[in-house]
Amino acid sequence: MRTPLLNRLLPFAALLALAAFSFSGSDYYTGLVVKIMIYAIFALSLQLLVGGAGLVSLGHAAFFGIGAYVAALLSPESEAAGLWWLLPAALLAAAAYALVTGALALRTRGVYFIMVTLAFSQMAYYVFHDTKIGGGSDGIYLYFRPELSLGGWMPFDLSNGTTFYFFVLACLALAWGFLALLRRSPFGAALAGIRINEQRMRAAGYSTYPYKLAAYVIGATLAGLAGFLFALKDGFVTPELLAWEQSGLVLLMVILGGMASLGGAVLGTVTMVLLQELFQSQELFGDYARHWHLPLGLAIIALVALLPNGLAGLPAQWRERRHARTADASRKAAREAITPARAQGKASASRLPIQGERHV
Q1: How far apart are CA 37 and CA 226, in angstroms?
Q2: 0.85 cut: is pTM over it?
Q3: CA torsion, points 319, 320, 322, 324, in degrees to nearest 10?
Q4: What mean pLDDT, rounded, does the chain reach?
Q5: Three-state secondary structure along 87-115?
Q6: Which of 14, 145, 223, 250 is deepest in the core (most CB within 10 A)?
Q7: How far lies 171's CA from each of 31, 117, 178, 225, 330, in Å?
Q8: What is the per-residue pLDDT across 319-341, written as a single tens digit (0 to 9) for each?
Q9: 141: part of which helix (H) or strand (E)?
Q10: Backbone angles phi, psi at 206, to 5 degrees
C-alpha cells in the first residue's frame, strides 16, 4: 500500500518544491526551471502518443513550433495582446494542423507512420524557414507578453518574472492532472488496449482510428501550449523549433524517463535539460564544452543501456534484483541443507549390518 500512496503524493510534493523554488532569488536557476517545466509539458504531450497509444512520432515539434509562431505573429509590436484570445488561437492552430495531418498519417503504421509525421513536420519547418511568414530563417520577435484584462482589471501580470513562473507551473499542473484523468478514463483504457493489441480491440468492436486521431490532436494541443509558453519565455521564435532535431529531443526525453508513466516523461525532461547544461558548461569543461554533443550522446547511450525501463522504472528494477538475489540465496541455502541429508542417507544405506541387526 505504501508504493501507490507514495506515487500519488510525489506529484504534489514536486509541485510544492517547484513553487518554493521560485523564491530562490537566482534568475538563472529560475529561468532554467521554467525551461524544464515547458519542456515537461512538451514531453507529456508526446507521452500520450508513445506511452498511451503506442504511436511513435518524429513530427511532434511541428505543433510546438506552430504554437510559438502563432503567439509571435498575432502579438502586436506596440502593445500586449489579450491572453484570453491569443492562447486559444495558438492551441487551435496546433490542433487544426494535427487534425489534418493526423487524418492522413494515421492511415499508416509502424515506420511508415514515423516517416509521414516527419515529412509533415519538415513541411511546416520549411514554410517558416523559406518564406517571410515568420521572418524566414532569422525568426521573429515577441515584444510584449500577453495580458489578461477583465474590464480594465488584470488578475496577474505575465511581464513579471515570478508571475510568469507560477503561470507555467499552473499549466504544467493542469496538463499533468488532465492526462492523469485521461489515463484513468474509458478513453485511456481504450488507448492502452490499442497500444497492446489493436487487432484484438477491433475484434472487440472498437473503431480504433477515431481514438488514435483524438489522442493525436490532444497531444498536439498540449505541444502547442508548450510552444506558446516557450515563445513567451524567450520572446523570440525561430524555425528551428519545428526541426526534426526538436522532435528527436523530446522523444529521447520520453524514452529516457520511461514511456509507461507521466512521471517518466518529466524525469526524462529534467535529466536531459540538466545534462545539456552540464556538458555545455565552460567552467567545468573549458574549450571542450563546444563538443558537448559527444558526451551527451555517450551519457544517453549509457542510461538507456543500464535502464531499459527508463528512470521511472529504476525502483522496480532494484526491487526485482533484490528479490532475485533473495530467491537465489534461499535456493542455495536449501540445496546446502538437502545435500548433507542425502549424503547421510546414502551412507546409512550403504553400511553393512552388524551382528543382531536385520538385513534390509
Answers
A1: 9
A2: yes
A3: 160
A4: 87
A5: HHHHHHHHHHHHHHHHHHHCCCCHHHHHH
A6: 223
A7: 16, 26, 10, 8, 50
A8: 777 787 877 777 777 777 776 65
A9: strand 140-141
A10: -85, 135
CATH of domain 8-280+290-308: 1.10.3470
Q: Is the pLDDT of residue 100 over 60?
A: yes
Helix (H, G, I), strand (E, B) or coil at 308: coil
Q: Which residue has the cell 507529456?
A: 44
- Please state, as a whole number, how many other Cβ atoms lie within 10 Å of the Cβ of residue 29: 11
> Which amino acid, 262?
L
Coil, helix or strand at residue 1:
coil
Contact between residue 61 and residue 246 where contact means Cβ atoms under 8 Å apart: yes
| Whole-number Å distance between alpha carbons of 274 and 142 | 27
Return phi, psi of residue 82, to 5°: -85, 125
> What does the domain layout of the chain look like in residue ranges?
8-280+290-308, 309-342
Q: For residues 161 and 44, give the distance between their C-alpha atoms in angstroms, rounded to a whole number.
A: 24
Encoded amino acid at 332, one letter:
K
Enter the DSSP assignment of 354. -
CA-only gyration radius of the chain, Å: 27
| End-to-end C-alpha distance for the chain, whole angstroms | 58
Q: How far apart are alpha carbons 307 and 271 in whole angstroms?
A: 13
Pair 273, 32: CB distance under 8 Å: yes
